[in-house]
Amino acid sequence: MRPLEDVRIVSLEQYGAGPFGSMHLAELGAEIIKVEDPSVGGDVGRSVPPYAEEGDSLFFQSFNRDKSSITLDIRTPEGRAVFEDLVRTADAVYSNLRGDVPEKLAIRYSDLKEVNPRIVCCSLTGFGMTGPRSREPGYDYVLQALGGWMSLTGEPGGAPQKTGLSLVDYCGGYVAAISLLAAIHAARRDGVGTDCDLSLYDTAVSLLTYPGTWHMTAGYEPARTHHSAHPSLIPFQAFEAADGWLVVGCAKEKFWQRLTVVMDRPELAQDPRFATFADRNRNREVIIPLLEEIFRTRTVADWLAPMYAASIPCAPINDVAGALVDPHTLERDLVAETDNATFGQVRTLRSAVRVGPPGADRAPTRGAPAMGADTERVLRELGYDDARIAALREAGALGKE
Asked: Going by C-beta distance under 8 Å and a sequence separation of 6 or more, which residues neighbour residue 96?
């Protein structure tokens, strides 16, 4: 058995952050029942271009493996009744909607505790359910701007930059998954559920970590650094070689000493200007140009071989294609292959979350479901017969045929 096979989550999720969070739980065995609103075509992720057609997309496939999908309009009386029946059988209701929407849809703990006192109501919103921005929609790009990330990303003197990936969304999904599991644990222990009020804004600000601590405590002013350099550890950045780019990370003094040998410049380790991290930081305007000149004299491969041999942290700067075919990617079984009626064989990336001994086989994975693919099965598991299912369809609670 997978560790979460006894967990059932009813999810009103859409797009990226919410589905990303629950997909890790699904891979660990949790039953994720996606409630998709048929009046708006279900999860908006189904229509994200450029690879979208017939109510499905490769974007949607990236975030929704191993889940079930039912169509249900919980704003109708009939749909609400079905939703509450699901809540009676579930451990959690999970959503990623605007901060004021959980109240409007009545999916908070105060709304559902009479239905199931142990239910956990986990809401991942843009800005949380409190505060002056609580009614604003939250998107990764907006949160990177508000959270200070873009002021730190890019070259000094250039325009502010977002990260290449939607990291606020994805980190928010992880935060939601951790919070949801903790709340389910507490509900099973205590017999009482709760709300989890999570936000992408909180996630973005909390991830400022040590630069935030430095600023608030010591007056440090964070700034963008040349070639993605660490703010104080030198050398720890991207360097241009004769035929490409690599990263060298001397996070300990011993790595710097080894690097000077690899560079055939051992005297640099003895130079009092460069002896310690503090010395190199004070003299960064001297040492960085010198190192850049040295690294341009050899190819990436010619640098990596001796640095690997000396156990100096380093890596080539791969493109996406290179990262996906790296031998370590393949050995770690990070690529999932599933069949899809629209796109044929779909190759997506598996969760980094693992439970089990090193090298253990991973559980089989299923492709993301077609919208409403599991509606009838889930309803019959609730005890609904043909007549009641037909009545729900007639009332429009399951969407139009």
From this structure: 13, 14, 15, 17, 18, 19, 21, 123, 124, 125, 176
Residue with tokens 């079984």: 333
Backbone angles phi, psi at 291, to 5 degrees: -65, -40
Catalytic residues: 169
Task: Answer for the pair 187, 87: CB distance below 8 angstroms, yes or no.
Answer: no
SS (H, E, C) 93-128: EEECCCCCHHHHHCCCHHHHCCCCCCCEEEEEECCC
Of 65, 167, 193, 175, nearest to 125 (Cα)? Answer: 175
Instruction: Tell me the C-alpha distance between 64 and 341, whole Å.
Output: 15
Tokens at residue 96, please? 């990623």
Q: Are 200 and 207 in contact (CB under 8 A)?
A: no
For helices 386-395 and 77-89, what crossing angle results, to 10°?
130
Q: How far is CA 53 from CA 40, 45, 370, in A?
A: 16, 11, 12
Residue 337: both structure tokens together:
């292959």
Single-letter code of the amino acid located at 17: A
Q: CB–CB of 21/177 below 8 Å?
A: yes
Two structure tokens written together for 377: 């099965």
pLDDT tens per residue, the chain (401 residues)?
899 999 999 999 999 999 999 999 999 999 999 999 999 999 999 999 999 998 999 999 999 999 999 999 999 999 999 999 999 999 999 999 988 999 999 999 999 999 999 999 999 999 999 999 999 999 999 999 999 999 999 999 999 999 999 999 999 999 999 999 999 999 999 999 999 999 999 999 999 999 999 999 999 999 999 999 999 899 999 999 999 999 999 999 999 999 999 999 999 999 999 999 999 999 999 999 999 999 999 999 999 999 999 999 999 999 999 999 999 999 999 999 999 999 999 999 999 999 999 988 888 999 999 999 999 999 999 999 999 999 999 999 998 75
Residue 283's CB is within 10 A of a number of other CB atoms, namely 16
